[in-house]
Amino acid sequence: MTASAPARPAARGAAAPPRPPRRRAGRPGRRRPNVLAGAGAFAWLAVIGVPLYVLLVATFQRSEDYTAAGPLALPADPTLDNYARAIDNGILVFVANTLAVTAAVVAIVCILSATTAFAVVRSRGRWTTGVFRAFLLGLAIPAQAVVIPVYLIIVQLGLYDSLVAIVLPTAAFALPVCVLILTGSMRDISDELYEAMALDGAGSVRTFLRLVLPMSRPGLATAAVYSALQAWNGFLFPLVLTQSRDSRLITMGLFEFQGEYRVDVPGLLAAVVLSAVPILIAYLLARRSLVNGLMGVGGK
Amino acid sequence: MSAAPATARPAARPPARRGGAARGPRAGRPSALWTLPGLLFFGVFAALPMALVAYLSLTTWGGLGDPRFTGLDNWTRLAGDPVMHRAVVLSLVLTAATWAVQTPISLLLGVWAAGRQRTRAVLSAIFFLPLLLSSAAIALIWRSLLDPNFGPLAWIAPRVGAPDADLLGDPTGAFLVIIAVTAWQFIPLHTLLYQGGARQIPASLYEAAEIDGAGRWTAFRHITLPQLRNTITTSSVLMVVGALTYFDTVLILTGGGPGSDTTIVPFLMYEAGFERWEMGYASAIALTLVVAATAVSLVMVRVTGFGAMRSTREGM
């Protein structure tokens, strides 16, 4: 964030009468364009954009041209061969596996964190407070720290090298954050609504289904987004708990590609791009809840 | 999933049975049984492993057969293992560097991106992109970009007078690359957190400051920063715990090398456990990680009052 001093006019002391706000909903205190910050932001744009540009361009380049042409040059002779090769190498199977794992993780996490959060928020007693504390402490357990016993448990259950083996611990590790998110959004449901349900004679199941779930949709969306990203991008559990090609997920697939095709960089990068396509599509379709969801993870 | 059902109608009634009548407040309240499914699941795959890792750290176990109890052997060995000492130092340096690099950039970008101008919205959408890529994908991209023989680095380096640039082959270089790549990967997330935080700052505060003649810097220093207090804590804790556990990036980018110059604690644990199959020893390493991460989180719960579920707006 460096820029030269003159970019910041010291207009403070010199009578700055409160001009009427020109923009409708702009942030106050931002009347003049902030040159310094703008320069910084464009510098960061380069930091983010240039590698992604180089990545994309490389995937359309013939392997022979890749090293010769220079990273910024557009491919002289664009080709889809790299993508074809990545697909031949089974990337689509890995994507399908990952989709299945992600769906299962999201379903498990949403159901379990919603029921838990409901009890934490609504039932009175030391037990549920204790449960909530336990989940808070669970936030601190890094997956790496328990991967060895998880491996032991999975082997004992006879699940080693299956997709289920990845789903179970991945979901368990997404639970604490999601319980936290959902207790936050369920706390915002007003007592009057609960009382109204109670006056209607609703039991806890009906209250949960008819009031709590519909009212916590933003929280559920956040939990879904968070757990989906965990599952999609998970690396350690697939690395340690699976082995065969049939249960390979996309992240492991990429890792293996790297070993097998060291020299075929464009092919590898095409696989990387393909691996991000489903998430990119989800981003384009549900940008708002994805962004708000991720904001919510830290915000609440 | 339809919008709030059957709620508006009875809500209009005055709250009946205040005080006394015990039935009212209890009706519709879930019993503690509701916590069981979540708790069981979490227990088997997260809490039980915690207990197991403590037990395994007292055994010798090769991954097959039964663990053999060997008391504190692993711990004595760990205490005297120079590679572990090195890994701890590297982890601490990496964590500190992560915080020092990522916090200022994310904070400034986040506050900037919180503005509603169109440029800012468009750029924010682009800044967000690395979040869509997995650590594995990001590490692979950078490994390819920095490859000394086949990558853009190989093309650029000779043109700027450094013909043999092999960043990943150089101890300091490799370490700096890990700091830079993880920053590239995680700054977007933290920017998002700060953007969310900054948007919650009441506009009236800035208006008041402006009437008082405060400039941009003064407003940032005396309104934005204090108001972002909670966000700073949350983001910092996520960063610190995250940095303690960077693993994918190290495995793919450097494999702990050159030598063991980027072998941080989680990577050392992986090596011991799943490459040398010394599961007992690896468990001892893992337990030190748990202790470190738990300590950080407990401090977080204390400092931010997460446990008491206080509102972020409280004490304004």
Describe the structure.
The complex is a heterodimer of chains A (300) and B (316). With 300 residues, chain A is mainly alpha-helical. Chain A has 2 domains: 38-79; 91-299, MetI-like (MetI-like fold, Orthogonal Bundle). Chain A is 71% helix and 0% strand. Mean pLDDT of chain A is 81; it is low at 1-30. Chain B is an all-alpha fold. Chain B has a domain at 88-263: MetI-like (MetI-like fold), CATH 1.10.3720.10. Chain B has a two-stranded antiparallel sheet. The model of chain B is unreliable at 1-24 and 307-316 (pLDDT under 50). The interface between A and B is large, with 136 and 132 residues.
**Terminal Cα separation of chain A, in Å?**
29 Å
Any idea what the radius of gyration of chain A is?
25 Å
Number of domains of chain A: 2
Q: Give the biggest beta sheet of chain B.
A: 2 strands, antiparallel
- Helical content of chain B, roughly? 55-70%
Number of helices of chain A: 14
Overall structural class of chain B, as computed from helix and strand content, comes to: mainly alpha
Put simply, the count of helices of chain B is: 15
CATH homologous superfamily title of one domain in chain B = MetI-like
CATH-derived topology of the largest domain in chain A: MetI-like fold
Mean pLDDT metric of chain A: 81
